[in-house]
Predict the structure.
Amino acid sequence: MNFPSRHPLNQSFRRSLIGQADVILAIEMNDLWGTVNSFSDRIVRRSRPMTRPGAKIITLGVRDLYLKANYQDFGRWQDVDLDIAGDGEASLPALTEAVKRLIDKGRKDAYAERGKKLAAAHLAIGERAKIDATIGWDSTPITTARMCAEVYDQIKEEDWSVVGTAIGLTWPHRLWDFKKPRQWNGVSGGGGVGYNLPASLGAALANKKHGRFTVAFGGDGDFMFNPGTLWTAAHHKIPMLYILHNNRAYHQEYMYLTTMAARHGRSVDRMDIGTTIKDPNVDFATLARGMGVHGEGPITDPSKLAPALARAIAAAKSGEAAVVDVVTDPR
Amino acid sequence: MNSLHSIAVAALAVAALCPGAASLAPAQDAPQGDAANGKHIYLTEACFTCHGRSGQGGAYQGPAPSLAHTALPFEAFKEEIRNPVDNMPAYSDAVLSDKDIADIYAFVESLPGPRSPKDISILND
């Protein structure tokens, strides 16, 4: 379920608000435990609820209907007060009307006042995102903020749909105007191990018959697991713009090993061994062309990114899959 | 760890860091650091892997704050490295000396930091 990114009540980057809620309604949520608990990944791992004592948690969604196999990703178990198996999107209009009927004049005024504060906070977070995005704007390797801003600048007039993302890449939701549920299909339970490219192509296939413009971001480490997906894209003529967030590493692993070494008082200057994808650098654009799809890159100069994107977007709009290899800063 | 979970965890770390950062005045007694050596350490000791080569910030288990032209006083900066509040690794003196930290501080202080987004048209879509 998506909430419009520029709606004044969107408080996605203010997680501390969870501690103020009397009732939490989680609609089609993937990782409820991870949302309502804080987690500290230290040598001794600790977690604690972020909810206030007595807060009620209600879930509404179809996840429970997907029970199907011995092996399935659920994440950690979160106890809830009321679990409703139902389609969130279909249920929301009726729920909205039911809530409206219960709002008297006093409550309406109170909600309006609270709404003003939330809207102001939302606006400030949006402005902060723009300011943060300027840092290192002209740097090489290219910042992930610039990569995402450049992509949005060229697709914003399309009927776009983002169907994949690299680990930790929040810039689209910080900068882009998400208005429709189909513009974002969420994240996988585990990133960086080959899920993103084939899953994105599956979503692109679903989008194809609707004429939507599919765009996906993905890391180079994740890409290394299943590059043959591109041949499938070419064979079945599935259009997709795939932006390779190429930090030349299995970067989450790189950071994790650094963390572990520091915790044990060891030197952290050799954590690139076995975690980076260099010497030689992979030429992903050539690989893409070899698989029969459009390839651009490696793009290291930020001023060269916009023209490369324009060519790739033209290819995707003509019915091809296209890969743009953007050499980026890590995150 | 699930990435949604990770984002949420990191929001806490940033929330814990930023209010203090905003209220503290720049230190007058920051030791003289060697920005060139600080850059070398920043890039070899993995600071950049989470905080970015331009100090723009990034993400590990959650958001890693921007360090470019940091508002943190030196002592707070050092404390965050020695005893971080959340998922950032703690760097002991055996891994990073006080001199190393002073050099890193000099480097991040020398970074240009943000510009006005109004000067970049595509950030105003």
Observations:
- DSSP finds eleven helices and ten strands in chain A.
